[in-house]
Amino acid sequence: MSTTSSSQPLAFPPVAVSSTHPQQSLRLLELPAELLDVVEAQIKNPSKRRKLWFKSSRDIGGSGPTQGQRLPGGSNRGINSQAAAAAAGEGKEGFLHLCTDDKIWAVKQVSTSNSVYVTQTCPPQKQGGGGGDNDKDGTGDTPMAGAEEQANVVRLAMAVAAGSRGGITTKAQVKNVLELIEVKADEREIERRVYDMVPVYHDVEDDNSPLDQGHQGGMTRHEAVSTRDVVDNIAAPTRLIRDVMRKSFIFGLPQPTTRKGERHDEDMVYLPTPALLLRHWKDFLQQCNISGIHLEKNDNVLSGKDLRAVLDGLAEAEETEAARSLALNVTMAILRRFTDGMEDADVPMLLNLGLSLYSPDHDRLLSDARLKFNPSLTREMVGRWLLACHARRKSSSLSNTSSDISSHGAGRTMRVDEFLTEWTQLLPDSWAAECDLTSLISSVDGADTATDGQGVQVLRFEAAGSLPHPLATSSAAAVGSTTLAKDAQNQNQNQKKRKWHEKFGAQRSIPAVKR
Predict the structure, then answer these.
(1) Which class does domain 377-395+410-466 fall in?
(2) Please, are residues 186 and 478 in contact by the beta-carbon 8 Å criterion?
């Protein structure tokens, strides 16, 4: 440790400055005023603490699948396999971001030529008596050489001791500063990453055709993921990730897992196919009729008492525990999408993806729940499921037939009146009255209407492989959205000034920090 001192007069006790070696490797994180207020508020009131996460999304290379089939009794490849693929060099590193529940900041590394040090205080050193420390030649006398310098050191030590003050030591020289730049999260990009991570759960009663084996990816996966895995590995605000999962009808199933050497049940999440959703929506409507519940009455509101009766009826109709769990969790995923909690009812947790259907909290919330259906959204999504299912069935039926183009073209059609009849039967009467096929087709790529040789209006489907995912929350035609890091760069280039430059005169180094 090397020591120097300030040249302040002794009337103002000087401060000893030293350097501790080896120096630590540190980088300073510059917090915007908004985040600084959050951190300071948490210190004063820990009970209202908000979580901050450093995240870095990772793109998996083309060798890995993006979607896959969940085989009965098994689970699909998930985040652990993705991490292994990335470690093997298959993935592309993402940019580092700081995330909260609601916002996201890109982390930029900025270099500076200024001397910026990180310091810490040192306790005062005890001074030896009799000036023994100053006896350099063993005779009790101080050599003339360096006597003046030694006197300065003695005066410094005495001043520090007299003032009961310690010194400061530099433990790191900071050459790079991390700057936070707020960016706008891209919901399409989040959706793409969620679909890439979460395995698909197929309906074994309807999705067992060869086309389903390679759903969008060409390969199957063998490891499931939890909600925590999804949230922790997507650089985006937590609430937006969960909202994308809700809009995608993602549901959880309890599975035995091992974390930190302990075995316990944890909900693993899956992306349902349209056929799976359609089957459980039909079961839900049927059970409502059995229980005498009319969804279109009472201003489209479903009470907690009625919901409990429907869920109990669905559970009783299944023969195995696994089937009961699947039916209840898929049904709740549908309700999370189609309904909103009433303002005068305490039901936010009821619609929470992470809440177990068998927890005491769930039963308590059910008794007070009031869920209001959105008829227009329900009508559109059910129509999309039906379109997707018919398109898949038409394509599947052609797999073992002649390869003649004309026969294939005829095989991919369906009478419009037949489709409308089936669609309206999947909705309460008052909701079905507004079924509009033209509006539905305009919102979905891969299907259109035409007139056949007999003058009958028909639906014409494209090949199943070209159909977009019917659960997508954003435009299915959008290909390759702008990433969060690129958004941050564009915003940064448009800035005319940066406060960091004003304070430190920094120069930009690399465009972003990579984890």
Answers:
(1) mainly alpha
(2) no
- Cβ(219)–Cβ(169) below 8 Å: no
Lowest-confidence pick of 37-41, 50-54, 88-92, 165-169: 88-92
| Beta-bridge partner residues of 119 | 170
Q: For 240-270, write each residue's pLDDT tens digit.
A: 999 999 999 999 998 877 777 777 778 899 9
Q: What is the spatial distance between Cα 31 and Cα 180, in angstroms, rounded to a whole number?
A: 7
Query: Which regions of 184-290 does DSSP assign to beta strands (E)?
Result: 200-201, 225-226, 251-259, 262-272
**22 preceded by cis ω (within 30°)?**
yes
**String of DSSP letters for 8-72:** --TTS---EEEE-SSPP---EEEPPHHHHHHHHHHHH-GGG----EEEE--BPPTTS-S--B--T
Token pair for residue 396? Answer: 């599947």
Token couple for 194: 């969620």
At 473, is the secondary structure helix, strand, or coil? coil
The pLDDT score that the predictor gives to residue 69 is 33
Answer whether 438's CB lies under 8 Å from 419's CB: no
C-alpha to C-alpha distance for 333 and 462, rounded to whole angstroms: 29
CA triple 96-471-67, angle to 5 deg: 60
Range with lowest mean pLDDT among 127-141, 172-186, 319-333: 127-141
Q: Are 185 and 236 in contact (CB under 8 A)?
A: yes
Encode pLDDT of 301-311 as tens digits: 888 889 889 99
Q: Which of 169, 310, 183, 298 is nearest to 237 (CA)?
A: 183
pLDDT at 155: 60
What is the Cα gyration radius of the chain? 33
